[in-house]
C-alpha cells in the first residue's frame, strides 16, 4: 500500500468534523501543581469548560527535547516523573490516559517539513500530565506528545505547527505546555510575590503582540532586548508558545488566563485560541 493510500485510510478513521477545536497554551510552572488545588489548576480546569470533548490530545511539552522530531506512538504511554526533590505523593501519581498509534501514524504521514519518527519509549512527562490531569481528570482522552527538535530555530517550530492545523477539524486538542518567562536561576525566594520589572514588561509585551496578531516579533524574540534575554535564557519553555501561535488563524479570539508571575521569574500566563 502506498503512503497516500495509507494516509487516506487513516483520514477515514479520523474524519473531519463540522467544528474546529481550540488551541491551548499552558504555563505549567512547578510539578507540585499536579497534586495541588490552587488558582492555576482551577484555571486549567476552566479551559475545558464549553469545549467539545476531544478525540485525542497532542501536547508539545518543554520537557521532551530531541535531535530530530518524534511523536509518542505506544498504546499505553507511561507516566514519567522527570524531577527530583519533591514529596513522594508527586511520584505516586499515575495518569493512565491511553495513546493513539493510528493518530501517530497519521501525523507521520501528514508532516512534510521533517521526517517524523514514531517513539515507543518516552511516554507523558510532567509538562503534559501535570496539566492534563486537571483538564481531563478521568484520563479518558488519548494523549500523544510531540517532541521539540532542539537543533532547530524558532521559525522552524512555528512553521511546523502550521502543518498540524488540519487536526483541529478532526477533534484533536493541541496544547503547548511551557512558560513564557522561565528563569530558574533568578527565582525570588525572599519576596515570592514580587515580580521583576523585566519579567512584567516582557509578559505584557508578549501579550500585546499576541493580541495584535503580530507573531514575527515573538518568533524573533532574541531581538527583543535584555528583558527577553533574562526571561528566556533557554528556548525549551518558550517554544511551545510558538506551536500554539502557529496554529492560530486570522481573527480568532485569544483569551488569557492565569496571568501571573511566580517567584519573580516564572510566568503562569496561559491562553486559549478559538
From TrEMBL:
Keywords: Dioxygenase, Metal-binding, Oxidoreductase, Zinc. It comes from the Bacteria. One of its GO terms (molecular function) is oxidoreductase activity, acting on single donors with incorporation of molecular oxygen, incorporation of two atoms of oxygen. The keyword Heme does not apply. PANTHER family: 4,5-DOPA DIOXYGENASE EXTRADIOL-LIKE PROTEIN. Belongs to the DODA-type extradiol aromatic ring-opening dioxygenase family. This is 4,5-DOPA dioxygenase extradiol.
